[in-house]
Amino acid sequence: MKRLVAGNWKMHETTRAAQRLASSIVASVRELDIGPNVQVAIAPPFTALAAVGAALAGSPVLLGAQNMHWEDDGAFTGEISAPMLIDLGVRCVILGHSERRRYFGESDAYVNAKLRAALAHGLLAIVAVGETNEEHDAGIAGERVVAQTRAAFDGIARERLPEVAIAYEPIWAIGSGRNCDPDEAERVMSTIRSSMPGLEGSPILYGGSIKPENFGAYLALPNCNGGLIGGASLDAGAFAELVRLARDTAPG
Ligand code: 13P
Description:
Blueprint: E1 3-8, H1 15-32, E2 38-43, H2 49-56, E3 61-65, H3 82-87, E4 92-95, H4 98-103, H5 108-120, E5 124-129, H6 133-137, H7 141-152, E6 164-168, H8 182-193, E7 204-207, H9 212-219, E8 226-229, H10 236-249
Parallel strand pairs: 1-2, 1-8, 2-3, 3-4, 4-5, 5-6, 6-7, 7-8
Helix pairs in contact: 1-2, 1-10, 7-8, 9-10
The protein binds 1,3-dihydroxyacetonephosphate.
């Protein structure tokens, strides 16, 4: 399966800085000559999508969004729809990030509705799942992520599953510098893989304090097909190094 390296810029960078960062990333990715088996995406804030899209034009780096609404249009103040994203050249979208779930009340049902909309519009969706620190300590990480995964895919045809990536992001590992032990991450990712028929073909990403020093250990795991990167994706040099690791370990 292809490798996928996606940068989630979260609420960082105004347009000018975003364009500069995207241009540096494009330059490094061009140099790396990633080939057909590595996909790279960056998801800036909505306000920087147009500027970053311009910087990515003609490059293999996909423009991503961090969220979207499930309806195409309507009275939904403050929301952005799939057609609006596509209009700006967006090709992929992160859905159900734990920060959306935690701070903005994003439920499993919302994630499911958004995933249906993303599929209807041909966007590559990255559905994020992960357990809290308490759930981790209680030994129920597997149960939690399976519940989130099944809810996200509820009612979605099995043959569509390979079009969706799942990011396993233990919440306690996000932005904490406390990355999940790779063996433990593999156990959870293999649980996700076997939680529904059809997921054999879906890329599964690890996310949570990924850095150039630790990414290789995740890429070596049988059920890890890439990474969803926060902090390190804001540093063009570090992000390029992550892309290089993915390229060097990509199949065939
Ligand atoms: P960090 O890489 O900063 O831990 O963030 C991970 C993340 O939340 C990506 O979506």
